[in-house]
Amino acid sequence: MPVFYSDRPRLPDCPLVANCSTRCAQSQRDVTDMSAIRSAASMFVERFGRDALAQAELRADELLAVGNYEGRARWQLIGREIGAIFRTD
């Protein structure tokens, strides 16, 4: 089933959005859906165990530092899913 832009969580706009007439090519390529987020969170927990949430937060901070806002939002979503995994344990 295809994922439409309106079905995805709203991601923050680039700080340069005032100077752009359209969304960035990177934004148009983004096809993140919640099943992919859940899968990434599960794999991250397998790899890092109880340290997975801290690692996801670290990656989100690294992406923010280089101005990749969509990547940061994606890792924040992954972090939330990791938290949900640990709450159900």
Give a written overview of the molecule:
The chain has 89 residues and is an all-alpha fold. 61% of the residues lie in helices and 0% in strands. It is built from four helices and no strands. Helix 2 crosses helix 3 (52-65), helix 2 (34-48) packs across helix 4 and helix 3 (52-65) runs antiparallel to helix 4 (69-88).
Tags for this model:
4 helices, 89 residues, globular
Ends: how far apart? Answer: 30 Å
Subunit arrangement of the protein: single chain
Unreliable parts: 1-12
| Main pleated sheet | none
Order of helices and strands: HHHH
**Overall morphology:** globular
List the helices and strands and how they pair.
Layout: H1 25-29, H2 34-48, H3 52-65, H4 69-88
Helix pairs in contact: 2-3, 2-4, 3-4
Summarize it:
The protein has 89 residues and is mostly helical. The chain has helices at residues 25-29, 34-48, 52-65, 69-88. Helix 3 runs antiparallel to helix 4.
